[in-house]
Design brief:
single chain, 492 residues, mainly alpha, 0% strand
């Protein structure tokens, strides 16, 4: 029975490999984005048929459902980061987030009132924070600082693919098969996610599993040696023990006498001090603050553009929902360049890709104001500008995620007393990332939508471009370390 419990799990090397763990986490991010976006084209129907909302209030409640998702993710992120860093395993919080995702999806599917739909979106937003924080921390634990940029790039690529595919599939399935089929498809993807997460084994647990046989063998040998000594040389063992005990007592008496005579100062008692949570101490880093600011702006620009782009293509080109979804192809397909950018960041630092990305977003987003006529040239111009902007978004998001991991590594190295090991702080650092991203996703649609309604498409375009260009300044100064510091490398 003992040998059975100590048996290695099947395919342990594969299930605990870096590539498989990165794949599982990336798929989880894809499913999270899919769950978020797949019901967007279904919301008007579900609100009217299942929520009892009148047609003139549908737009209001759609905005509410999108907003509460981001607000919930923002609020729960610091608490979940604190819990994840103190959990003995990343796998348990990862599985809890999955159960919450499945439960909230079923709640929205079967809801018969607007209150239940709002509650479902709150739970979905909370689950999204859980998935992002735990997944990012797990990848940082697994791959280490050397390859964290490239590995995190696969997560951002999965996010972009989920953002693109979900609305298209949601609209097509809803139109051709029906309302229930949309959620059945979503739960099927969640079911596959469940399978992957149970198959995956954390590298730390895998290493412990590989050592069980060695530890068991060593313990048997040690017990045998002890028994042998106790049987063969009992008197010698007892005499040695008595001598060691007598020496310890004599040293203790001499030490006490010396302290009383004033020859040896008594050890100072450490003063008690209030230990702030690591998530608050991290906010004192200007380098981390610049990365979080860049994440906030990235989320604001992307979500704002995502909100108004379908409306603008419908107004100018007369495109339906299918065309409005396909226009995101040039914006998101550039995410496949993410691993190459992550590789560059791991070897040369995140500063220059992020700086150049934000700087070029200024002209590319501003030039969108030229798309105002229903001509072939204008459609081509729109696709070209969106492709260039999409590449800039990839150049900014991937380095910013890697920069957070670099900062944690350096903080833990410089001040181990405060931070401990980097593994104990990763989740709280990425909780700050989740808060910044969620806040951007909440502000972006409101910012872009209100400006477009009040001042038009052209003003909205240069407003987004201006924000991107201005953000390049703090990113260029602090991302990767203070720019005037010598020899600034990843993690320094």
């Amino acid at each position: 029975m003992e040998n059975f419990h100590n048996k290695k799990p099947l395919l342990l090397s594969f299930r605990s490999s870096k590539a498989f763990i990165v794949f599982v986490v990336s798929y989880a991010i894809f499913v999270d984005q899919f769950v978020y976006a797949v019901i967007v084209p279904v919301m008007p129907f579900s609100l009217h048929q299942h929520g009892g909302v009148s047609d003139d209030h549908i737009q209001y409640w759609v905005s509410v459902l999108l907003s509460v998702y981001g607000i919930a993710s923002f609020v729960v992120s610091p608490f979940w980061g604190w819990y994840t860093d103190r959990s003995s395993s990343r796998r348990i919080p990862f599985l809890l987030s999955l159960l919450l995702t499945a439960g909230s999806t079923i709640m929205i599917w079967r809801s018969s009132s607007i209150a239940l739909q709002v509650a479902g979106r709150v739970l979905q937003g909370s689950a999204a924070a859980f998935i992002w924080i735990t997944g990012l921390a797990m990848i940082a634990d697994t791959v280490g600082q050397k390859d964290v940029g490239q590995s995190l790039a696969y997560m951002s690529m999965a996010m972009m693919i989920g953002t693109l595919v979900a609305p298209l599939l949601g609209g097509v399935v809803f139109a051709r098969v029906g309302y229930d089929a949309v959620f059945e498809m979503t739960l099927g993807l969640i079911g596959l996610d469940i399978l992957f997460r149970f198959v995956m084994i954390e590298r730390k647990a895998a290493k412990d599993g590989r050592q069980e046989d060695i530890l068991e063998t060593s313990s048997h040998l040690e017990r045998a040696e002890i028994v042998e000594k106790a049987v063969i040389e009992p008197e010698k063992t007892i005499r040695e023990h008595d001598v060691e005990y007598a020496e310890a007592e004599r040293n203790h008496r001499l030490g006490s006498t010396a302290q009383e005579a004033g020859k040896i100062p008594a050890p100072l008692k450490p003063r008690g001090r209030v230990r702030l949570p690591a998530i608050l101490i991290l906010l004192s880093s200007r380098r981390l603050i610049s990365a979080l600011w860049g994440t906030l702006i990235q989320g604001t620009l992307f979500s704002g553009l995502e909100t108004v782009l379908p409306l603008q293509t419908q107004a100018v080109f007369g495109w339906n929902s299918e065309g409005g979804g396909l226009i995101f192809l040039p914006l998101t397909l550039t995410a496949f360049s993410g691993p190459a950018i992550g590789w560059f960041c791991d070897r040369h630092g995140p500063r220059w890709p992020a700086f150049v990305g934000f700087l070029l977003l200024c002209p590319f987003l501003t030039l969108l104001r030229l798309v105002i006529d229903d001509t072939l040239n204008q459609k081509v111009l729109l696709c070209v500008l969106l492709t260039l902007a999409g590449f800039c978004f990839t150049m900014t998001l991937d380095p910013l995620m890697a920069e957070i991991a670099y900062v944690v590594e350096q903080k833990a190295k410089d001040d181990p007393e405060t931070y401990g090991s980097a593994e104990k702080v990763y989740a709280q650092a990425f909780a700050l990332f989740s808060m910044a991203w969620s806040l951007g996703n909440t502000v972006g649609p409101l910012f872009a939508g209100l400006i477009r309604d009040a001042a038009g498409w052209g003003t909205m375009s240069w407003a987004l471009g201006l924000i991107g260009g201005v953000t390049a300044v703090p990113i260029g100064l602090w991302c990767g370390g203070w720019i005037f510091k010598q020899d600034t490398r990843p993690g320094e």
